[in-house]
Amino acid sequence: MGESPSSRQGSVDGTERIEGLGSAAIRVRCCRLVVVEGPDTGLSQTFDGGSVTVGSGSESDLRLQDRAVSRTHVILELTRDGYRLRDLDSSNGTFVDGVRVKEAFLHPGGVLQMGRTRLRFEPADQEISTVPSSVENFHGILGSSPSMRKLFGVLERLAPTGVSVLITGESGTGKELVAKALHDASPRATAPFVVFDCANTDREFIRSELFGHEAGAFTGAAGARAGAFECGNGGTVFLDELGELPLELQPRLLRVLQERRVTRLGGSQERRVDVRVVSATNRDLLAMAASGAFREDLYYRLAQIVLPVPALRERPQDIGLLARSFLSKAPGNKRFTTGAVAKLASMPWPGNVRELRNCVDVTAALTAGAEIGPEELHEAAIAAPPSRPPARGGMSSTLDEVERETIERALGECLGNISKTARVLGISRPTLRAKLRRFGLRDC
Prior knowledge:
Layout: E1 11-12, E2 15-17, E3 25-28, E4 31-37, E5 44-47, E6 51-55, E7 62-63, E8 74-79, E9 82-87, E10 94-96, E11 99-101, E12 103-105, E13 111-114, E14 117-123, E15 126-129, E16 137-138, E17 141-142, H1 146-158, E18 165-168, H2 175-184, E19 193-197, H3 203-211, H4 228-231, E20 236-240, H5 250-259, E21 261-263, E22 270-272, E23 276-281, H6 285-291, H7 296-302, E24 305-308, H8 319-328, E25 335-336, H9 338-345, H10 352-366, E26 371-372, H11 379-382, H12 399-413, H13 418-425, H14 429-438
Parallel strand pairs: 2-24, 6-7, 18-23, 18-24, 19-20, 20-23, 25-26
Antiparallel strand pairs: 1-2, 3-15, 4-5, 4-14, 6-8, 8-9, 9-12, 10-11, 10-13, 13-14, 16-17, 21-22
Helix pairs in contact: 8-10, 12-13, 13-14
């Protein structure tokens, strides 16, 4: 008894862990509700989301034409231990196998009764077979190695579904690019893709940016503002650095995910939102859940599929493809020699793809000729130990040069982690991204 989350391997009820992307198939937890008695007899619907609401209102996922059923009568929530039913303070109550309940776990074939309607609950897990993709470019992500072709194959199968995906991997591996590719390949591609950084240290800022606020909700809130979920309605919300989300804000996020309604800070109106949530982290959330540092129920709600992105050192054959692609975007029509590519492929790249891109950009800027060989590679970008940002007024002759050097060095110290670099520099993440583009230090 009492098996901890971190001790579980492979499929964890609501979560399918794709270890090393070696699986031949992905198991997606789904359920089917079949109306066996009542005005909607014969109605059958399958759900692949982490929660399902049933009621007579238009906001319910399964809408029943039964006036004895409340607008949002019950919610079914996918947990580690299976689907759990919870009555949402309905007028006439909810019964499972003839017993009135407020909350209960459902078993295969279990019969739910609400109003004059009886429904049968059926597990409907889906096996999504995956084969390596034939492409080397999946919506902007490059890779020809077996691990990347497997990743592309998984993304191709996951994109049309609505399951929540947790992307894991080291900093700089391109987790945001994977999330964007998942969005671009999905039916939601024409709707917004909203990025939210959970690593901001200002709790009030996180609440405001995530859920929105009304005018006067807090000091400085001169006007109303929609949050990430409202802005992403119909599309995808990407929660970056999920492991940094403050514990006290996690219940509110869980409520939004379960009920698909959001209330702005300082407001009382609930707004319906329809979003797919994709998250990313470089932390061990299962271990955090076991220690109480992260809510276990939130983890299983967001991690229906756990998708690891391989580190660059695990796919060295992609380094040449990536380096040439980055170099093609630099001015001067330059090219790498075979020896240069071999040298790049031999490096460990602790900062992963982001560090490689920074190296290519810096090397291209410092190389006068059209051909870049091993001797032209900018050693400081790939081998120099971390150093502190230079004091203002050093050897750089202009403020722009000082700022560029400071950002570049801070980025190296933080191993390419954008949020940590922004905190070190005392600026916001969007501001840092703008400066990276301005100085040609584009992050991936």
